[in-house]
Design a protein that fits this description.
Low-confidence stretches of chain A: none
Mean pLDDT of chain A: 89
Order of helices and strands of chain A: HHEHHEEEEHEH
CATH topology of chain A: Arc Repressor Mutant, subunit A
Oligomer: homodimer
Number of strands of chain A: 6
Strand content of chain A: 15-25%
Largest sheet of chain A: 3 strands, antiparallel
CATH superfamily of chain A: Winged helix-like DNA-binding domain superfamily/Winged helix DNA-binding domain
Distance between the termini of chain A: 14 Å
Chain lengths: 160, 160
DNA sequence: ACACGCATGTTATATAGTAACATCAAGCGC
DNA sequence: GCGCTTGATGTTACTATATAACATGCGTGT
C-alpha cells in the first residue's frame, strides 16, 4: 500500500451472516474428521480472518479478539494461528507479516499469493511448482513446503 | 534448524581475504556504474554478509558492525540493508527474517532460495517463474517482484 | 560561499513473536 | 467415581524485529 494509492484495501469482501456460518461449520466438520478440536479461541481467530477484507496482522487479531473490545493476550492468538496453519485453514504471508484464511480449501499445503502493493489485496492461487521442485531435486534437496509471493499491482490499481 | 540436527550452519563458507576484497571491489564498480555510493556503513554490512556462513539476522549485523565490538544503531544497519537490496547486492529471506548476499550477481531481481530446516543453509537459485507469471497474467496482475522460498532438507542433512 | 539533496547519527518507540509456568478440561483405565 | 495423562488455555514477563522523527554532516553544482 503506497501513499499514492486511493483504492480500498483487500480483494475479498469478507464473509458475513450465512456464508460465514457455513465456512465455520465446514471447518468444524473438517476438524471432527481429523480428530482435531476447533476450540473457542481458534474458532474466533478463524472467524476474524474470514470476515476481513484482506490480510490481517497478528496484532489486529489480538485487538479485535474480544467481543466487547478487550484484546486477547498475544499467545492466545499466536497459538490459534499456529493451529489454523497446521490444519490448512489459514496462511501466513511472510512478506506482509500477515494472515489470511485459506481460499482453496484443502488442495495442497503450499500457498502462493498475488499481492497488490497499492491496495493490499492478497489473492491466493494454486502454484505450479514444477520448476522449483526440479531445481530442488537437481541440488538434492527434499522440499517439504514452498511459499511463493508475487508483488505487483492488481487490475484495479493499474487503472486507477 | 531443529534440535535433532547436529550439522553445521550454512551452506556457504563465507568469503575471506582476496575473494572478499574482490567481491567488495566488484560491488564498488557496479555502484560507480549506476551513480550510487557504496558508503562505509553499506560496505561494512555487505562485508559482514559476504563473510558469513549463512543467513544473518539484522541484529547479528547490528552486533557485529563495529570493528571493536561496539554495536551499530538499528537504523544504520536497516538502511544499509535497504540499499543493498535495492541494488541487488543482498536479499532478505522472509521466512527467516534474515539476510544473505546475492550469489547470482545481477541476473534479475527475483530471489529464490532452498532453505534447509536442519542446518540453516540457504542456497540461492535462479527461479523459473514461467508458471507464476502466467497465473498472474491470467488474473490481470502486473508483477514487479517474486519471492520463492522452499523449505526442506539439504543433501547433507538427509543423510545425517 | 551557499543551497540542495542525500546519507548518516541519535533517540525513542512501535510492532512482532516467544518462554515459562500455572490452570483447566476431556478421555481413559480401573 | 478416581486419578492419571494429554492437550489446550490463561497469564506474566520478556525477547526480537523494525521504524518514526529529527538533527547533523558531506559532496556537488552554481
Amino acid at each position: 500500500m503506497n501513499a499514492a494509492c486511493h483504492h480500498e484495501d483487500g480483494a475479498h469482501h469478507g464473509l458475513h451472516g450465512q456464508a460465514l456460518r457455513l465456512a465455520l461449520t465446514a471447518a468444524e466438520t473438517r476438524c471432527a474428521a481429523s480428530q482435531e478440536r476447533l476450540t473457542l479461541p481458534r474458532r474466533r481467530v478463524l472467524e476474524l480472518l474470514l470476515e476481513a477484507h484482506g490480510p490481517l496482522k497478528a496484532y489486529d487479531l489480538i485487538a479485535a479478539f474480544g467481543s466487547g473490545g478487550e484484546p486477547a493476550k498475544p499467545p492466545t492468538v499466536y497459538r490459534a494461528l499456529d493451529f489454523l496453519e497446521r490444519q490448512g485453514f489459514a496462511h501466513r504471508i511472510e512478506s506482509l507479516n500477515a494472515y489470511v484464511p485459506c481460499r482453496l480449501d484443502g488442495r495442497g499445503h503450499s500457498a502462493a499469493f498475488l499481492i497488490c502493493d497499492c491496495c493490499g489485496a492478497a489473492e491466493e492461487f494454486e502454484p505450479d511448482l514444477g520448476a522449483g521442485i526440479a531445481a530442488a531435486a537437481a541440488r538434492g534437496y527434499a522440499v517439504s513446503a514452498v511459499t511463493l509471493e508475487a508483488r505487483g499491482l492488481c487490475p484495479v490499481c493499474q487503472v486507477g
